[in-house]
Amino acid sequence: MRQVFIFDTTLRDGEQSPGVSLNVEEKLEIATQLARLRVDVIEAGFPVASPGDFAAVQAVASQVEGPTIAALARATQKDIDKAWEALRHARKPRIHTFIATSPVHMRCKLRKSPEEVLRMAVEAVRYARSLANDVEFSAEDAARSDRGFLCEVFAAVIEAGATVINIPDTVGYSTPWEFADLVSYVKARTAGIDRVTVSVHCHNDLGLAVANSLAAVTAGATQVECTINGLGERAGNAALEEIVMALKTRQDYFGVSVDIDTKHIYRTSRLVSSLTAVFVQPNKAVVGDNAFAHESGIHQDGVLKERTTYEIMTPESIGLPESRLVLGKHSGRHAFNEKLKALGYSLSKEEMEKAFNRFIELADKKKQVSDRDIEAIIQDELVTTPAFFELEYVHVISGSHAVPTATVRVKNGDSSVEQAACGDGPVDAVLRAIDAATGMQTHLVSYSLNAVTGGKDALGEATVRVKDNGNTYVGRGTSTDVIEASARAYVQAINKLVHNRRAFSGRLQNDATPARGTDEPVKKVEGE
Ligand code: KIV
Ligand code: ZN
Prior knowledge:
The protein folds into three domains: 2-276, Alpha-Beta Barrel (TIM Barrel); 297-381, no CATH class; 390-510, Double Stranded RNA Binding Domain. An eight-stranded parallel barrel has the order 2-3-4-5-6-7-8-9, surrounded by nine helices. A three-stranded antiparallel β-sheet has the order 11-12-13. A three-stranded antiparallel β-sheet has the order 14-15-16. The protein has helices at residues 24-37, 51-63, 77-87, 103-110, 114-131, 147-159, 176-189, 209-218, 240-249, 251-254, 265-276, 297-305, 333-342, 349-365, 371-381, 426-438, 482-504, 508-512; strands spanning 2-3, 5-8, 41-45, 68-74, 93-100, 135-140, 164-169, 197-202, 223-226, 256-257, 389-397, 405-412, 415-422, 443-451, 460-468, 471-479. By secondary structure, it is of the alpha/beta class. 41% of the residues lie in helices and 19% in strands. Zinc ion is lined by residues 13, 168, 170, 201, 203.
């Protein structure tokens, strides 16, 4: 059976989503999980874009085993050198270089003639092949390019050594029929096409990214580029979990195989959602909260009699534990450990101990601790960013006739600082008090509060996004007390900010500034 390779670009195209910013440790955590999911390729970043991207690609390349590790580069020697420098220690490195081929991109963005673009593409691929054995070439905005020119470019880059050619629908403009036709056209009219992997990369502006990717598979594409939860710029990229489950569930129709371990889908989705703070809509296919929920009596009756009446895939196949059994304060360490295993976590002894203590604390306040509660506290405890500041205590006075006032105590190394502040409301007062205690000034971009489960005693999950010097940092905190959850979230965002400043201070401008004016601007540049 023909195999379709799954190329995950959550860490590169996904991270280009507005408000999403992952640090090196978070990218490494996601990449490790993607390797468990057994994706074929992880696109780890765009090394020339920022020191953070460079460091993340380097870390993933040297530490994550299994998948091919790819890094993006524009069609310039400088970008390719940077990508290779970051990638070179990967067991299976791939340089992914691209240039736009559509009339509007060439004329208005690149200000280059088709001949110049063709020459740059060939030179870039030839140069990349002098460094790496595996080189992917993408014709950006291929779906709006002239088909004859597109095939000419692809034939030339194959001749120059490309091992993968990628057909992106960069602006999500195509329709499934048209896109399948484009793939067939390229396959029929490009010299040397049989020697390379034919890849597609679809955006979701018209909600057709998954449909277009699947249509491309029926036309013979052998690699699909996608992201977890469909994360990505604007309306996002094609969702990995939807493509994989469609190809698996309808293997009878597509007749292709994928090597994904689908039991890791749910856990990967939750991890990406939690670290990016981009929530998954409840009715999202495959990984949404309601994807396997049956509400109507007729459906419930049908499923109870025979599951396949209303379920085309099982929750277990994506790693949703069958039993939604809740734990309580009498559940011991053994039950807790079993639950973690069922949820797909493999924690060290020390992490397990911390998580168990948080669980006991929570079980004391809440009668029943659900899977969702456990996931939330694990995400809290598994933060990979060093805790420069730790919240020791928060106290708030608030009410309809009181001036909201907060006192906090924050530990920094061996010393603790106590500060008080007033604010517009209790959360504002707490954040101001934390600013005073940490000596940090940040700009709060967004704040949201969710109940992790139903019930009046539910855990509150606060998410904040703060901005500093052009960079965004996300913090999450959970507690049955929403003010404490907010304070925890804010302290976590500040810790990430401090961590980033320490990791990249002094390197921001010199190392990272990409060559402006020679090509299109880099999409996201830290520190500018
Ligand atoms: O959407 C796009 O065209 C891209 C390319 C760089 C592959 O992300
Ligand atoms: Zn893209």
